[in-house]
Amino acid sequence: MPNPQGNPENLKKFTTDREKPLTEYVHLRVTKEMKEELSSKDNPPEFCRRAIQKALDEDRKSSES
User: Fold this and answer.
1) What is the tens place of the pLDDT at every residue in 11-65?
2) How far apart are CA 38 and CA 5, in angstroms?
3) Which of 42, 48, 53, 43 has the alpha carbon at shortest distance from 19?
4) Are 38 and 44 in contact (CB under 8 A)?
5) How far is CA 6 from CA 13, 15, 22, 49, in A?
6) How many angstroms separate the CA atoms of 26 and 29, rounded?
7) CA 61 to CA 55: how far, in whole Å?
8) Which of 25, 34, 49, 52 is disulfide-compatible with 30, CB 3.0–4.6 A?
């Protein structure tokens, strides 16, 4: 029996217009202060993706040198 309080929008498949789809999950622990500051951002998930990509790019550049 379906949940009468459920939202049918949640049953739709996730779609994206990105070049590469977001299919994987990463879980990490942060301090309470980090979480509070992150939560104040307009789009916390996108902020995290950009920060991680920036760090990966910098790491790649330093290892190539």
Assistant:
1) 777 677 889 888 899 999 999 999 999 999 999 999 999 999 999 999 999 998 7
2) 30
3) 53
4) yes
5) 16, 20, 25, 29
6) 10
7) 10
8) 34
